[in-house]
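Memo to structure team: turn this sequence into structure tokens by end of day. - J.P.
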Amino acid sequence: MADITIEILHESLDPAAETGALAGRDASAGGLATFVGQVRDEPGLKALELEYYPGVTKQALQRIAQTAARRWMIARAVIKHRVGRMTLGEPIVFVAAAAAHRREALDAVGYMIDMLKTEAPFWKRVHTDTGAHWVEAVDADRDAADFWMEEIASEDA
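Reply from structure team:
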């Protein structure tokens, strides 16, 4: 069974330190893949604010990591997600997987980030020059999640 770490953080996230803590940790893992999402500079954007549903959000992230671990036989899965107010360029999410081979690690990370965008209950509020408003998941996020669901279903058939 994979070693899974799930954290929801109210404080800053240091992707370099997170990666450093994983690199070389498991000699059987030849591949370590990571993804870092950060607040993107868009016209008028001043800050991003994320809220979550305590307990439920962490359980959703745990299920996503467990599915990735079973499907790609990864040794380690990490999802660390920020909540609260963040400014431009600030890291929001860190996702990592360690596996015997690179393809498994890369696919597991792709799956985890794509699924958490639609399956984990986070609410996003953007703060702009003209005020603040809540935003919904975009079609591209749903399409990415659908890709993985179809991929898994076709392999199970």
